[in-house]
Amino acid sequence: MYNRRKFIKISAAGASLAALSRSAFANTFPSPRNAGGFPIVISTWDFGVAANKEAWKTLSSGGRALDAVEAGVKIPEADMNNHTVGRAGYPDRDGHVTLDACIMDEFGNCGSVAAIEYIAHPISVARAVMEKTPHVMLVGAGATQFAVEQGFKKEKLLTPESAQAWREWLKTAKYSPVMNIENKQHHMPGSKYNHDTIGMLAIDAKGNISGACTTSGMAFKMRGRVGDSPIIGAGLYVDNEVGGATSTGVGEEVIRNVGSFLVVELMRQGMSPEDACKEAVNRIIKKKPDTAKNIQVGFLAINKKGEYGAYAIQSGFSFAVCNSNKQDLIIKGKSIY
Q1: CB 78 within 8 A of CB 87
Q2: Is 127 exposed, middle or buried (0-12, 13-18, 19+ CB in 10 A)?
Q3: The whole model's pTM is what?
Q4: Which of 251, 221, 209 is nearest to 233 (CA)?
Q5: What is the DSSP letter of 81?
Q6: Which terminus of the chain, N or C, has fewer Cβ atoms within 10 Å?
Q7: What pLDDT was estimated at residue 176?
Q8: Which of 131, 124, 249, 260 is nearest to 180 (CA)?
Q9: Among 95, 132, 94, residue whose Cα is nearest residue 113
Q10: Is the Cα dihedral 320, 323, 327, 332 positive or negative?
Q11: Catalytically annotated residues
């Protein structure tokens, strides 16, 4: 096995929405400026607070952003009350728990696993793919095989609580996503049948950026379904000269728009993190206005200066921020409804 070679480093405003007013169902967030300097870590949803706290242990001691984001997202991956990320995630419609994750460093190196089974921490397997193979992504049984060969423990992931939720779902076998489930009681078995992601972006004391994204995917999805979370450029993208972005929500729409890459490229053109996220959201709305009314997609971004911002289709999205000034800041959008 050998280390990956570093990748070679290598519009703007969207058209107005004609038949559909953006203000009808779009939600914006404040764009605070980081007054505390580096390091800083941000992540999606309220459960990002605990994840950020773990990442901060590395960042505050001068550690690398890559190590921080891996350690940070492992917290929700291990949380037995979190059914949208990691080992306690809800299964697919056939009863299999499959996990997705990706990671990206300041050099443009990246690794990913999709539809991996029996491994509690897919983010660490994704890093191993990045550092120990010539590939970017491993999937399914191959990803699991690689993980075991690398010394990861193989274990049953379907918990009694998740199994009970699955059995309840089988009574109707109807898939109906619930928006912003992370801000609801998603730990109640059988009560909420959606998913989501933790996406994390960090800048270390040297000013270098890394990101990580991990999820258990849509609850009761079709066997083999993969969303945006493990796809570099969709669920996560980092360019150390510009900034980083991550996404949350219905992954199919993020993939169709290569959302996180788009946000970073818009920041490269001079947009603020919030404005870049907003434009990415508006492109989704413009392409599929009827679909967008009934789903949630949100983007979170940070630029090289440490400025951060977010934008989502629906109200209810939140993100967590941790820097030298504040360890547990949660920023919530203001609903326009």
Answers
A1: yes
A2: buried
A3: 0.85
A4: 251
A5: T
A6: C
A7: 58
A8: 249
A9: 132
A10: negative
A11: 197
Residues 175-201 pLDDT 10s: 655 544 444 433 333 334 344 789 999
Query: pLDDT tens for residues 252-291?
Result: 999 999 999 999 999 999 999 999 999 999 999 999 998 8
- The yes-or-no verdict on residue 80 having pLDDT over 50 is yes
Mean pLDDT of 91-116: 97
What secondary structure, in 3-state letters, does 6-39 show? CCCCCCCCCCCCCCCCHHHCCEECCCCCCCCCCC
CA–chain centroid gap for 12, Å, is 24
Q: What is the mean pLDDT of residues 302-326?
A: 93
DSSP letters for 261-328: HHHHHHHHTT--HHHHHHHHHHHHHHH-HHHHTT--EEEEEEETTS-EEEEESSTT-EEEEEESS-SS
pLDDT value at 13 more than 50: no
What is the model's pLDDT at position 175?
A: 65
CB of 25 closer than 8 Å to CB of 284: no
Q: What is the dihedral of CA 100, 106, 109, 113, to 10 degrees?
A: -10
Q: Strands 40-44 and 209-215: what pairing?
A: unpaired
How far is 312 from 249, CA to CA, in rounded Å? 9
Report the alpha-carbon angle 213-219-221, nearest 5.
100
* Residue-level length of the chain: 337
Residue 163, SS3? helix
Tokens 């270098």 -> residue: 208
- CA atoms in the 13 A half-sphere facing the CB of 188: 7
The position carrying tokens 């699955």 is 166
Q: In the 8-state DSSP scheme, what is residue 232?
A: B
Helical (H) or strand (E) element with 141: helix 140-149
- CA separation for the pair 39, 323 (Å, rounded): 6
How far is it between the farthest Cα atoms of the chain?
55
Nearest of 289, 252, 337 to residue 22 by alpha carbon: 289
CA distances from 12 to 25, 26, 105, 254, 312 (A): 22, 19, 26, 17, 18
